Amino acid sequence: MRKADIICALILLGIGILIMADSIRLGCGWAMNGPRPGFHPFIMSLIVIIGCLIVIAQAIARKGVAGSKKLFIPKGAIKPVLRVVIPAIGMVILTEYIGLYVAAMIYIGVYMKWIGRYRWRLVILLSLIVPLSTYILFDKLFLVPMPRGILGTMVGF
Amino acid sequence: MDIINNLLMGFHVALLPYNLLIAMVGLVLGIIIGVLPGLGGANGCAILIPFTFVMPPNAAIILLACVYWGALYGGAITSILFNIPGEPWAVAVTFDGYPMAKNGMPGKALTASFLAHFIGAVFGTILLTFFAPILAEFALKFGPPETFSVMVLTFSAFVGLGGKSPIKTLIATAFGFIMAAVGIDIVSGQLRLTFGTVPLMGGFNFIVAVIGLFGLGEIFLTVEEGLRMDGFAAKLRWKDIKEVLQAMRKYTKTLVMGSIIGVWMGFKPGGATPASFMAYGFEKASSKEKEEFGKGHIAGIFAPEAAAHGAGTSAMIPMITLGIPGSPTAAVILGGLMIWGLTPGPMLFKEKPDFVWGLIASTWVGNFAGVLIILAFAPFFAAVLRAPFAILMPIIVFVCAIGAYAVNNRMIDIWYMILFGIVGYAFKKLDYTMAPMLLALVLGDMAETAMRQSLIMSQGSPLIFFRPPIALALMIVALIIFFWPAISWVKGKLSAKKKT
Predict the structure, then answer these.
(1) pTM value?
(2) Which residues of chain A does B388 touch, with a Cβ-Cβ cutoff of 8 Å?
(3) How much is the ipTM here?
């Protein structure tokens, strides 16, 4: 947990420095007609940078204290978490190419079969019904189009 | 008598058959959302925002508000039956609610919780009805310095009152403001913090952030903890209701105290969670049966639940009067207001009285109907939790993706959603509080404009925030709350020294 704390604070510190650099580029002082655009982000990035330094210092000082060795992700939990994260990312990648509805069909089907180990009949039924009903609801009734991907625009459905 | 007339007009809106139907749908959805792991009021409302595009604003706000009330009621079911708090403010009820269910009285525990919720709701709604119009009238006189001091007060409340680490809360808040600043600067029209990339030009949408931080992040956490859904069966009998009603007469003081703590704390942002703990602690400290607490004492259910719902309801007051939401869910509803083309703030009472009073009246209707629905159908809602996770999870992720995309019709938002999900997971584990970050993202533009306008008015002197009497008072309170963790730390050191 201590290590993760330090790493996270370092990442945030990096972003904070980046923001500060850009706000200095924009100008963070006083112009003719009020504060320059970089004024507000500059102060915020200052808070982030100082805050992160304190967090890092606190974490380093915590060395050896009970509980500091606790893992960020408990042993054995990393697998189920990845099993949720990776398919979700996969669905988004697929959406870029074949559109949200087809991607969701594959995603729901694969997840139910792979993790849930349901029977094919139920898997196919649900992975068809859920995207289809949302398609009718959003694209047809509400007229809110969902992403179609490259394939979808080519076929023109 | 103005208020009574307005309220009657509000009921006229809220009781239209269409709006009433919407309210019922919202309540049922809200209870289900409250029960399901990985879904709560905030992201439940966020996902439903695309559905409100086709509704008139009056119906849209009724839907979202009723989802909120439903989620408040429903959150208690998981805490009591499964010992899994669905929302942070449902943690306190697990102390006595779960033991009581374990003692073979799950029905009684649930009934006690629902009825306590209802009492809290009544207190919160009374305050909403009678105090909100006065506050709005008062807020009409606010200029940029006053608006900015209200914001400062809002965020210092988060730093001073909530979260385990005030510094991390501060970092998270600053990040929220930074994200809000990405894109086109509203004052000068310059592009800011885009680093020359096109996707960043559109900025970050906070509804996408809600869905990611509170939706996906929560799902990842649920998976990590491993789902052990072995709870108690919920059966509500007449006997339970009768017993609880008797207990309510005995513990009237507890309920009133809890509700008052709730509405008072909920009025300030981020107050619901501390309110429920405070009410529990207060009740335990003042009770004659201290050793009974933690073993399933009914007062240990009454106090935090009344406080939680009271806080949830009164969180709507600053949202509707000042445009500053008191809870993440209220923030999402505020975002909805902006999407429907309404400007939140005190002018809303003047410009859209049917909207405001429709919301207030539907708060009465929704909370009243909510308690009846959940008492009648609690076993059915509890059964939702038994739905297999391998089916629910991909469907929830899919619906989240629809919600994230529909806000702006941008593919990049689905990617942001995933990114926010991972950030939310890490932040939650490392104790960075997300509610203030979200609020900063919503209010960022407003706060920055108020600050810059004030500084233009004063030609650069920050003293303008301390000169108008209202701003001065707000700023003093804000500073005290902000430095409260430091003050109490010093006080603790001093008293420790005295002892040695």
Answers:
(1) 0.85
(2) 116
(3) 0.90
